[in-house]
Structures are given as C-alpha cells and as structure tokens.
Amino acid sequence: MLIVSVVLLTQMKKLSPSRVVNIADLRSMAERRVPKSVFDYLDGGAEGEVTLRENCRAFEDITFRPRHAVKVNECDLRTTVLGTEISFPAILAPVGYSRLMHPDGEVAAARAAGEAGTGYILSTISGHRLENVKAATKGPAWYQLYLVGGREAAEAAMERARKAGFSALVITVDTPVAGMRERDFRNGTAELLTGNVFAKIPFLPQVLATPRWLVSFLLDGGVPKLENVILPGQGGMPMTDVGTALRKSVVAWDDIRWIRESWSGPIVVKGILTADDARRAVDAGAAAISVSNHGGRQLDCVPAAIAALPEIVATVNGQIEVLMDGGIRRGADIVKALCLGARAVLCGRAYAYGLAAAGQAGVARALEILREDVDRTMRLLGCSSVRELNESYVRFPSAWKTPG
C-alpha cells in the first residue's frame, strides 16, 4: 500500500500544473516514455503529413471577437449530445491500440472521462473487452464499429455493446484502406505487432531505450488480441498491423441499412468532409455526424476538419447534431469549433498523449487542461455559457462556407 501511495504521489508531482502546462507538455512526456514505433503510431499522419499539420494550424485562421466589460460570475460548460448531458463539450475519441500506449489503455481513458463528467468512444481496434471498458466509466460510452472480421463478428460486437450499455454506435466511413503512414513503416509498428522475432531485431534498440514501458508491456502479456472482434471458432482476432486489419472492412452507405437493423440506438457517422456526404448521412438516418479527416491519418491534403465544419453545419441546417474532430490541442480550439456550429468536439491525440505519458492520471490531466482552457477562454470572450457561442464571437475565412 505504501509503495502504491509513493508511486501515485510521484506521478501527481510529474503531472502538476507547474510541470504540465499544456497538451504539448504531455506529448513530450509520451515521447520519452514509449518506444518510437508506438509514439509515431500515435503522433504521425499520412504521407507528407500536410493535413496532420493543417488540422492544428487552421485554428490560427480563426480570430476571436470578445465582448469586454462583461462580468461573468460562472461559466456553464455543460452541453447535451445525443440527449445526454456532459460536463463540458469534449468527448474522448476512439484511439486504436491504446493498450500498447499503457497497459490500462481504454479502461483508464474511459474511467478518466467518466470522472470528468464526459463521454468516451471505444475503438474496435482495442485490447480491452468492451464490457470492462463500459464498467469503468460513470459517463456515456459509445462504440466505434469497424467491420473487421466480417459482418458476423460486427453483429456480435454490436450485441455485446448493447448489452453492456453503450448508448451510441459510431461508424467511421473514411477507411477503405489505411493511409500511408510513413513513420510506421520506418519505425517498426508492424514488426512490433507481429509474432516474427527476427523481424523485431532491427527495432530492439528503441524498445530497450524505454525500459519502464517494456517491463509494463511484458507484464501485461505482450501484444494483446482484439478483444472485441471475436472470430467464429477462433476467439479474439490477433492484433495485427492496422492496414491488414482494416483492408477488408470497407463501410459503404448500403451497410448502414443492415447496421441500423442490428442497432436500435443512435448512430454517429464519422469522417464527413463534404456537403454531399453530410446529406447522405442525414438520409441514412444518422443522429449525428463528426466532421473529421481521421486526424490526418488517411488521405493527405484534404481540408482541415475545422475548415470543413462551416459548410457542413450550413448543409445539415439543424437536422442532426454536428460534432468535429481533428487538431484539438487547446480549449480555445474547442471554443472556436463551437462558435462555428459544432455541438461538441472529439479529442483523440490530446488525451492519448496523456495516456501514453502516465495512464489514467495523464488522461485526467489532459481533460483538466482542456476544461480550464475552455473556462478561461469563455470568460475572456465575455460569454457565460457554451450554448450561447455563435459565429458573432469569431472571424474566419469566408471561403470555408463555400463548397469547394
């Protein structure tokens, strides 16, 4: 018990506000703690990483228009997404392979989200059973579905998710194949995940350079299986390279019809970048869409998610809820997205850096940073509630509203 207390105190000191001021600090901690192959999987994007960079940079094209001499006694950061109230407008996005970043992986992230009063989305490409993840959180939990393992495996996962209490299903539509993530090829992500010992040899130095991660990885049993993709007669699907796992799991609009037959709750379509696809999602019966380019990890040189948001908000015109993900690193980014019409944002890398750096405590610190940022930004804007945010609080390029 004493040892556990000492470890917790040490961890809290490392994550104190004087040492971890922003999400970039958590990123630096994560880079030091995990092997380069794991960090680059988390941090990297497709091809030249143009969209990866633009996702963050594009927020600089939005400037605030504050109301001064406004007394804000208390900021109300609460909002409602799919009929459920959350404490502030940021939900943890699905991040695959989280158990490689930290043994507690998805369970730790879900627990931190629940304690912060917000939601968590579990990826199909996860190493913890969905039942355990749902049990860990006090907040809403959604299940992100890939058709990995085929229709039968997907239907079984949906039924498990329904019984466990997941309240919504997230369908990602931008992965007909995995993007060309060049860092992964150079730094041995596939070799780490496969069982070929000889293939791992060139990448051993980077693993040995992170002994604490290596010990926790080995104590956790090494590379886990995909606990939520149960193949008939085989059990959990081996956790392989993401390209191999997703290559045969393309989701077409016709698939959403049979998915709706298997899932009675709301469906969120993630990966929308154009007005035409937004209309298709509405016609398919989606309850919400997420304007997203997969964090710059799929097709490079597509628009930043924030730049695509205004056109899609105008197209949907209140028929369904609009979320947005991509490039969120500060609370000010969240406020800007809400001003442009998003109901809430999904955060992926922002919390995953915290997870890789320090497990649940790191995720909690990431959420704390973002929440404090949102509160401070709202006060400086002279706005007392996130529900009151609108375009009048910002300036942004007029071209973003024009279909391109």
Q: Would you kindly provide a brief summary of this structure?
A:
This protein has 404 residues and is α/β, with parallel strands linked by helices. Helix content is 46%, strand content 14%. The longest helix is centred in the last third of the chain and has 33 residues.
Structure overview:
The protein is of the alpha/beta class. The protein has a single domain, classed as TIM Barrel. Helices cover 46% and strands 14% of the residues. It has 19 helices and 14 strands. It has an eight-stranded parallel beta sheet with strand order 4-13-12-11-10-7-6-5. Strands 1-14 form a two-stranded antiparallel sheet. Strand 10, helix 16 and strand 11 (288-291) form a beta-alpha-beta unit. The longest helix is centred in the last third of the chain and has 33 residues, at 349-381. The protein is globular and about 65 Å long. The termini are far apart.
How does the SSE layout of this entry go?
Layout: H1 2-14, H2 23-33, H3 36-43, H4 50-57, E1 63-64, E2 79-81, E3 84-86, E4 90-92, H5 98-101, H6 105-115, E5 120-122, H7 130-136, E6 141-145, H8 150-164, E7 168-172, H9 182-187, H10 189-193, H11 197-200, H12 204-208, H13 211-219, E8 225-231, E9 235-238, H14 242-246, H15 253-262, E10 267-272, H16 275-283, E11 288-291, H17 305-316, E12 321-325, H18 331-339, E13 344-347, H19 349-381, E14 394-395
Parallel strand pairs: 4-13, 5-6, 6-7, 7-10, 10-11, 11-12, 12-13
Antiparallel strand pairs: 1-14, 2-3, 8-9
